[in-house]
Specification:
This protein is an all-alpha fold and 172 residues long. It is built from ten helices and no strands.
């Protein structure tokens, strides 16, 4: 969406408002936030501090309208969604919390059915490492979500494994 140079990143990170916003964020999130702030700055001419000061002098609906207005110039619904969310996040992290409720949903344009068990088993066959296969088979056979499978510990299956029970029950 926006070409961003190291110089522009460094310049933005000098603002106290941006430092507060980026605190404890992952590098990819920081880059996405900064890229969207650069875009906002280019379109509106407002640096982060001026944007916050401007927002504090306006009605919350005017601020939301301005964010929506700038977002409409961005191609792609996903990028627009991220932009609006990022700008609202910037304001919230800097104490401006009275924005109106946003209908920032992303509506899926096409529905795709989920994979069948046989299809997933076939796909798992293409995985190279046993640990990757184990992960897929655990999710496939238990119905657990990826985050839950990753959270599993020995204690969850200890009783059956230590008693040599072939069909192990996952006890959460």
């Amino acid at each position: 969406m926006v070409d961003i140079s190291r110089k522009q990143l460094d310049r933005l990170t000098r603002f106290p408002t941006v430092k507060r916003w980026l605190r404890d964020k992952a590098p990819r999130t920081r880059y996405s936030y900064l890229r969207n702030m650069v875009y906002f700055n280019r379109v509106t001419g407002l640096n982060p501090d001026r944007f916050l000061a401007w927002a504090k002098t306006k009605e919350s609906v005017e601020v939301q309208d301005r964010i929506e207005e700038v977002a409409e110039t961005i191609p792609g619904p996903g990028a627009r969604f991220n932009f609006k969310t990022d700008m609202r996040s910037f304001l919230a992290h800097n104490g401006y919390n009275n924005l109106p409720k946003a209908k920032n949903g992303y509506t899926l344009k096409e529905w795709h059915r989920g994979y069948r068990k046989e299809e997933l088993r076939k796909l798992a066959g293409y995985l190279d490492t046993p640990i990757h296969k184990l992960f897929v088979y655990l999710a496939l056979e238990t119905g657990l979500r990826a985050a839950t499978v990753l959270a599993l510990r020995y204690r969850h299956v200890k009783e059956d494994l230590e008693n040599n029970v072939l069909s192990v029950a996952v006890q959460l």
